[in-house]
Amino acid sequence: MANEHGQKWDRCLADSAVKIATGLGVGIVFSVLFFKRRTWPVAFGSGVGLGMGYSNCQQDFRSPYQLHGHRVKEQ
Amino acid sequence: MLRVCLKGANSAARKCLCGNGVPLHPLQQCRSYTSGGSGSSAGKIVAASVLTMGGGVGGTILYANWDPKFRANVEKSIPYSDQVFGLALGPAAPPPVINKPRKVEPVQISSMSEVWKDSKQPKAKEVQRKAEQPDAEGPPAPAPQETLEAAAKCTECEHEPAVKERPEGEVAARLAEQDKAEQDLLTSLSSNLEDALGSTAKVTLQAIGAQEAALQAIAQHTRQLREAMEAEAPPDKKSTQWRVLEDALSERSRSVDEAGAAVLKAKAELDKLRGVIDGAKHLKIAAARPSILAAEENLHSMVVDLDSVVTRVQTAQSEAKIVSQYSELVNEAKAQFQKELNSITPEIQANWKGLTGKLTQDDLNSLIAHAHRRIDQLNRELAEQRVREQIHIDSALEQQKLEDKKALEVAISTALEHNREQMRLEQEKKVEETREVMEAEMRTQLRRQAAAHTDHLRDVLKVQEQELRSEAEEILNSSLMEKETEYRRLTQDQLDSFTLDMNAAYARLKGMEEAIDSHVIAEEEARKAHQLWLSVEALNYTLKTAALNDPTEPLEGAVQAIKESCAEDEFAQALATALPSESLSRGVYSEASLRARFYTIRQLARRVALIDETRNSLYQYFLSYLQAMLLFEKAQEAPPAKLSAEDLDTFKLLSYAAYSLEHGDLELAAKLVNQLKGESRRVAQDWLKEARLTLETKQVVSLLSAYANAVGLGTTMAP
């Protein structure tokens, strides 16, 4: 149990980093291709990545408190 | 009254409103005026009603004071009015008591005494009359009768004194005396009665005989007188006739006197007899009654005969009187004629019939003229007489009627008296009969009662005999039983003592055998306990093999050994199975390792102190981290005896737990850690589980070792 906390954090950070990087990359690409090298798509992309990462992290941390419903397949 | 007030107020208000038609303020003024105006008329009405009510109440009270019935009615209908009346008038008078029954008795007594007085009075009156008229027959008969009746009544009313009870022997003696006295009295009485009856009968017969003789004499005299009147016998025969007549007359008078005297005597005797009968009645002997009754009957019959004879004599006498009167009249007429003749022809002597030759013609003529004149005179007298006859007859008839009536009354009264007497006699006879019947019945009833009494006595005696017999038997039985029980007790005592000795010896033998056996058993037990203890020690040793961060070896082997060593011991078996399975399979962590782990847990718990179900966003996480960095608590703080609400803060709890861990109290530390909430609790869950396991195992092991020690101690202490 004690380790879970740490593990969560590890996952969370890794995931966030990946997402931010991905967002940045996509943003750069879009900025270069479609938006005439403006900065806003980069910021936007990285923001989107950050937001997604944050959200995922939060979801992961909340997970023991969230109830999951399962669809029971009728036989 | 209230309505009137209201109506008055309303009407006044309306008038005011209608009258004015001006807005609010004058209306208010008007209102005050109307209240004032209606106030005066209301006051009048109030005063009038108060006066009326006061008058009504006062009138009611006055009338109730005068008429108690009205007061009672009002008290019944209106509650609490009786209190008002009590205040005003005082308590109501009680209703008058009816005491009619008390007055009845004196009246009865007075009536009795009056009857007695009345009966006395006629007696006195009769006595007077009797003295006045010695020849009267009616009064003496009723008078003695009435005296008889009165005497009877008096005796009856005197015969009501109370009867006292006397003792039996005395009663018997008295009864015997009474009987003897009665017998004597009876004999004397009966003899008296008979004597009196005899004498009376004789005298009465004499009187009757005398009366009959008188009757005969009177009848003869009358007959002779009539003969003398009617017959025209020659003078010498006439004189003999007259002489005979005189004799007869004297005879008659004599016999009448005799008869009167005899009647008097008879009446005296009858009275005496009546006196004797009264005396007998006074003595009140029951047996004498029939004789008394018979005597009375005789008396009555004698009286009746005497009366009838006397009446016959009376009628004869009256007839004789008529005849004598007639004879007197005839004689008078003859004397008159003779005188007249003598006056006309004084020379002619009495014997004038033989003188027809001596008479001259003048004398003859004068005689004839005289005769004619006499005839005329006589004719005239006759006519006059005829006329007077009618009047005389009428007056005579009337007189006769009166006399007849008188005679009838007298006859009726005597007949009534006789009838009454007869009825009384009959009644007395009937009474006598019924009395005899009743006495016979009473005798039978008394005999029956005596028989019942003897039966009852017999029964009672039987019952008593039985009771006494049963009592004696009971006593006998009880004494027998006592003696028997005594004997049995003694024998039993002897037996018991012998048995006791035998038992004691046997018990000692048994005791010795048991002691030897128990020694053996005790040795066995001691061996077993030793074995148990050894296995428990082995378990303890395995517990100590925990490295710092690794658990101990699995305890399974040691537990198995314990189970084998104490196969019969249920407690040890139970305890051995109570160990948690994880400890058996995996082993448990030691306290030291748990202590070391705690510090990492504590750090983590501090960091996530703010996170629980409601606050678990990443921002909260950031805040919680900030708190953990900035908040400083004591590393170790002594936990209080009781946890209050503010002690349930995570940081405090953790410091308490640290303190208790440092002081070796894993249990308390686990309890405190159990109080964590939210995420802190979640991260500490692992540690808590381990701590629980360790605690459980340690508890069981300590129990086992304590048990083994106890058993060992117990076995070593066995005798």
The counted number of beta strands of chain A is: 0
Q: Secondary-structure element sequence of chain A?
A: HH
* Main beta sheet of chain A: none
How many distinct domains of chain A? Answer: 1
Proportion in helices of chain B:
over 70%
Strand content range of chain B: under 5%
The major β-sheet of chain B equals:
none
Helicity level of chain A: over 70%
Low-confidence stretches of chain B: 101-116, 130-162
Our estimate of the beta-strand percent of chain A is: under 5%
Our measurement of the CA-to-CA distance between the termini of chain A, rounded to an integer number of angstroms, reads 37 Å
Number of strands of chain B: 0
* Most extensive chain-chain interface: A-B, 11 and 17 residues
Instruction: Give average pLDDT of chain B, whole number.
Output: 80
Mean pLDDT of chain A: 87
The SSE string of chain B, one letter per element, is HHHHHHHHHHHHHHHHHH
Polypeptide structure, described:
The complex is a heterodimer of chains A (75) and B (719). By secondary structure, chain A is mainly α. Chain A has one domain. Chain A contains 2 helices and no strands. In chain A, α1 runs antiparallel to α2 (40-62). The model of chain A has no long low-confidence stretch (mean pLDDT 87). Chain B is built from 18 helices and no strands. Chain B has 719 residues and is mainly α. Chain A binds chain B through residues 1-2, 4-5, 54, 57-58, 61-62, 64-65, and chain B through 600-601, 604, 607-608, 611, 613, 616-618, 621, 682-687. Chain A: It is found in: Mitochondrion inner membrane. Chain A: Keywords: Membrane, Mitochondrion, Mitochondrion inner membrane, Transmembrane, Transmembrane helix. Chain A: Component of the MICOS complex, a large protein complex of the mitochondrial inner membrane that plays crucial roles in the maintenance of crista junctions, inner membrane architecture, and formation of contact sites to the outer membrane. Chain A: It is a single-pass membrane protein.
